[in-house]
Amino acid sequence: MEETEKRVDTAERPEASREELMGALESVLFVTGEPLPKPEIARAFSLNQLELNVLLSELEGELEKNRRGIRLFTTDDTVQLVSAPEYNEWLVKLLAPPQEKNLSDSMMETLSVIAYRQPVTRADIEAVRGVRCEYAVSQLLKQGFIKELGRKEVVGRPMLFGTTDAFLRRFGLHSIDELPPMPEIETEDEE
Questions:
Q1: What is the pTM (predicted TM-score) of this model?
Q2: CB under 8 A, 24+ apart: contacts of 41-45
Q3: 97, 124, 144, 181 from 90: Cα distances, Å
Q4: Most buried residue among 20, 72, 173, 179 by CB atoms closer than 10 A?
């Protein structure tokens, strides 16, 4: 018996068998994620090239007709599942990395003071830096590098600030304990 006689034409298969083959093909293409050579697929599914082309055409038609989120991308030699172009805006929203903004010198100085002295108030930060820090604090809050930890139990009850997990991730730290030690600053008295 010739190999082509052993194989059954997809048009002659019962409906459930065709659906099962299409489901299996979709699963294989999904799991691999890479372009698969058509001869390899035909071999795995015991199909000849014509039967595979019919099955691919039917699967492609089903995916498009039902407005599925995936499509077949077929070349002469390979087949791959890809995302449907009409759903691109959702992919971009989810997968596009947010543009990482550079931190200005004043924001880095403010963030350093908060990281090493947390919990800390705005007045504490300004005392260390010697300049006002409202803008830097507001930008660091907006970018998620610091958070409000509560209020200090003193007159006026100023807000206390500390760093967040986003701060740790940005600087490749697993915990605040991994911060490098503060450099020793020589004072005029020591000279």
A1: 0.48
A2: 41/79, 45/21
A3: 13, 43, 24, 44
A4: 72
Helices and strands per DSSP (H, E), number in the chain: 9, 5
Please give the Cα distance from 141 to 164 (Å, whole number).
10
CA–CA distance, 19 with 16 (Å, rounded to integer): 5
Question: Considering the chain, what percentage of its residues have pLDDT values greater than 70?
Answer: 85
The amino acid present at 9, given as its one-letter code, is D
Are the C-beta atoms of residues 153 and 174 closer than 8 Å to each other? Answer: no
Q: How far is CA 188 from the centre of its chain?
A: 51
pLDDT computed for residue 102 by the predictor: 84
Distance in angstroms (rounded) separating the CA atoms of residues 168 and 111: 12
Question: Do 55 and 74 touch, CB atoms closer than 8 A?
Answer: no
